[in-house]
Specification:
The complex is a heterodimer of chains A (368) and B (179). Helix content of chain A is 29%, strand content 21%. With 368 residues, chain A is of the alpha+beta class. In chain A, strands 1, 2, 3, 4, 5, 6, 7, 8, 9 and 10 form a 10-stranded antiparallel β-sheet that branches. In chain B, 68% of the residues lie in helices and 4% in strands. The longest helix of chain B has 36 residues, at 130-165. Chain B is mainly α and 179 residues long. In chain B, strand 1 and strand 2 form a beta hairpin. The chains are: A alpha+beta (368), B mainly alpha (179). At the A-B interface, helix 1, helix 2 and helix 7 of A face helix 1, helix 2 and helix 4 of B.
């Protein structure tokens, strides 16, 4: 065939109608294959899959949409201070934050759930988000809670919980049968809840212990990698929580926190729990054996409290996977899912008009 | 004998195919990222440095295009078709520059660290601003879909010319030398 030998730009003899049709069909097929590949990647072919958007929708369904607020841990106040590293953490991680010295910290105390005006109560899960700004410009963010273990092992189980805790339109309350069924499907959740219930709840934010929730991998400058969980142990003495004061004092936990920070700086010890081979890193419902090495790596001091409207913490996404070199995610499936859903929640709220928080700037001034 | 079409210069062809692979990967990563829970972090960690690499290479490509102008369109293309082809090239060049910048800008406005690898990160190029973030975040998605549609049109046109018109247009850009 001389046509095959022709140089670029030459036109071959015209095709017959059948040949043209076949070749047009081929063009269509190739385009359809490309479109199909991207449709698959973009999730259009798997509409029932759990996505960050669907998980975020579930938060909104459970608590209602409150524009401008976080979809979870909606109620909170901003804090700031510093972390003073004692250098002990450098044994496990090359992260600059563990070299001896002081780095500035911005944080946010919060209560779980999507309602920004929820009444303070002892059994509401307490959150503390922190951002450490390292001298080399790296950031370390962590979103910790006061539960020693997490009740859900996978994002799917967490989603089931959100669906089960959404109010039934008929009664306005969650259907108890839904939660019962969830516990039957997820015995690990029932076991984790038993561990959680066995722990006494502290009287305030200031004397609460906060946990990293998930395991991470710390890598030393020698290249040695170990699984690590961490917690913040309060220097303020523990006192057991009493009953909630009732509906007239809806912000009593936050008000007490504000008063205490304004009286004197609050301190926590950052304690690493170093795992060993075989310790579960992909299951946040399981505690590690109690004899694991614990290392106090420094002190967090929070000496300033601010309402969200003035605090930079309002617009920080405390994404647990904003990590400095030397700290990496473990194989815990919750970590990437948390990162994805926090990001989705952040994108939604940053595009909405900001509403005043339940704890206002006047409340913070009044605490003095 | 029709006038023979010249090929693009070798460096232009290399840049075209390397960037085609990067950009098609990027579109897939971007689409998969926003619907993924388990792979979100890994995809995002790959998305950022790949985007910055595209930004660097597209600047190289602008300079190369100035130094090594493209060959004329083949005789088989009508005046209208040439205008559409030029416009689509311009859109794709523009978006390869703008999309990474919008991504970098939106992360800056949100104060997300722009980590490339390990402790290597880029500075913020915009002040912190929720509004700016929200606008740029939406623009990033919309412009990516515009890029995808422009790519599909470009790809469909090349397929049509190559398989139906058989005018040898692809030979201008194939990686190997055609004589």
């Amino acid at each position: 065939m001389p046509a095959d030998r022709e140089g670029p730009g030459s036109t071959r003899p015209p095709l017959g109608p059948a040949g043209t049709l076949v070749r047009l069909a081929l063009v269509g097929l190739i385009l359809a294959a490309v479109l199909g590949t991207y449709a698959f990647l973009g999730g259009w072919l798997t509409p029932s899959a759990l996505t960050p958007a669907r998980l975020t929708d579930a938060f909104e369904h459970a608590a209602g949409v409150h524009p401008g607020f976080r979809r979870n841990h909606a109620k909170g106040v901003g804090v700031s201070g510093f972390f003073e590293s004692n250098g002990n953490g450098a044994r496990f991680s090359k992260a600059v934050v563990f070299r001896p010295g002081r780095v500035p910290v911005i944080g946010r105390f919060s209560l779980s759930g999507g309602r920004p005006d929820v009444a303070d109560a002892p059994d509401e899960v307490r959150g503390l988000g922190l951002q450490f700004t390292l001298p080399d410009g790296e950031l370390w963010r962590t979103a910790m809670i006061n539960l020693p273990v997490f009740p859900f092992r996978t994002p799917e189980a967490f989603y089931e919980n959100l669906v089960a805790s959404a109010p039934d339109p008929a009664t306005g309350k969650p259907d108890p049968a839904g939660m019962k069924a969830l516990l039957e499907r997820h015995p690990e959740t029932a076991r984790a809840l038993a561990v959680i219930k066995s722990q006494p709840i502290a009287s305030g934010f200031d004397n609460t212990t906060f946990h990293s929730l998930n395991a991470f991998r710390f890598t030393s400058s020698a290249g040695v990698s170990v699984p690590v969980r961490w917690l913040l142990e309060p220097a303020q003495p523990f006192e057991a929580a009493g009953a909630a004061p009732g509906s007239r004092d809806r912000n009593y936990l936050f008000d007490a926190l504000i008063a205490r920070v304004q009286r004197q700086p609050l301190r926590w010890h950052l304690v690493l729990t170093v795992g060993q081979a075989g310790d579960p890193t992909a299951d946040a419902t399981l505690a590690w054996p109690p004899d694991r090495e614990r290392v106090d790596v420094g002190t967090l001091t929070l000496d300033r409290v601010e309402a969200e409207e003035t605090s930079p913490a309002r617009d920080i996404n405390f994404d647990p996977l904003v990590l400095p070199a030397g700290i990496a995610p473990s194989d815990d499936p919750l970590l990437s899912a948390r990162s994805a859903v926090y990001s989705r929640s952040f994108t939604r709220r940053e595009g909405e008009a900001k509403q005043p928080s339940a704890i206002t700037a006047a409340d913070v001034r009044g605490g003095k | 004998m029709p006038t023979p079409t010249r090929q693009f210069p070798a460096l232009s062809r290399l840049l075209h195919w390397v960037m085609a692979a990067m950009v098609l990967t990027m579109l897939g990563v971007g689409m998969a990222m926003i619907v993924s829970l388990g792979d979100y972090h890994a995809l995002l960690s790959f998305h950022r440095p790949l985007g910055i690499a595209i930004l660097v290479l597209v600047v190289v490509r602008f300079v190369n295009r100035r130094l090594n102008p493209p060959p004329p369109f083949p005789a088989s293309m009508s005046e209208a078709e040439r205008r559409v082809a030029s416009a689509s090239e311009l859109v794709m060049y523009g978006l390869m520059l703008v999309l990474p910048l919008v991504g970098w800008g939106m992360l800056s406005a949100a104060r997300y660290p722009i980590v490339l690898y390990g402790s290597v990160h880029l500075p913020f190029i915009l002040p912190p601003s929720p509004t700016l973030y929200a606008v740029l975040r939406k623009a990033h998605t919309d412009l990516a879909y515009l890029f995808f549609l422009t790519f599909l049109a470009h790809f469909a046109a090349i397929l049509f010319h190559t398989l139906v018109l058989r005018d040898g247009i692809l030979k201008r850009m194939v990686p190997w030398r055609v004589r």
